[in-house]
Amino acid sequence: MNNAFLLTFLSVSGVSLLSLLGAVTLFFNKPFLKKVLIFMVSISAGAMFGDVFIHLLPEISKKSEFNLSVSSAFIFGILISFIIERLVLWNNCHDHECTEKDKRAFTYMILYGDSVHNFIDGIVIASSYLISPAVGLASTLAVILHEIPHEIGDFAVLIHGGFTHRKALIANFISALTALLGALFAFFLAQYTRQFEVYLLAFAAANFIYIAGTDLIPELHKELDRKRAVIQIIFFILGVLLMLPLLLLEK
Fold this sequence. Notes:
Elements: H1 2-17, H2 30-63, H3 68-90, H4 100-131, H5 133-160, H6 165-176, H7 178-190, H8 195-220, H9 226-241, H10 247-250
Helix pairs in contact: 1-4, 1-5, 1-7, 2-5, 2-8, 2-9, 3-4, 3-8, 4-5, 4-6, 4-7, 4-8, 5-6
């Protein structure tokens, strides 16, 4: 438990620092960032699916039967992800309809949604490290690959909503710190029964499948250029393959 706690703390702290990556948008033009980030989205989607089917689900099957309780935890994870996304989208508005007040309200909703999302990231990373360092590292890598384009995008949204560069970075970083609270919450639950580890893993797997399947994959389908689409597929496969070497650490 002590090892798992230390590794979780280091991983979650590292992931939280990614919130400062928004500053890179100040040094690159938008077309270049858009080209690079879409490939990050590809590798992120592959890594999330890879982590679920190579690490998380096999670990669940080792520790427990895939019974109604585990299925319920899985469905609960998808439901929570869906609700968080709906809360943000309900407060969205198109540029031509948005007043300055609307834009500012939307940016605060983005920060709220991110805080909850980061809290869940903390749960995902902690529950993975509770199983083994290899599973924890796999989940951390999947989260990192997703957070890089996500944090850069959030920074751009905050700037568009009227935040200064400094305020946007600080706000993004504070919302990222909720991942630490999520990790502590996971360890708190795991103290009471080992069965909670299985439920937390199911929750983590559901979260990854939801993000990869409903957010990342649809974004990739927007690419109509065949050459770039092929490169996306290659990066997606690379994301899955990144999860394979970590199996060696589990043995």
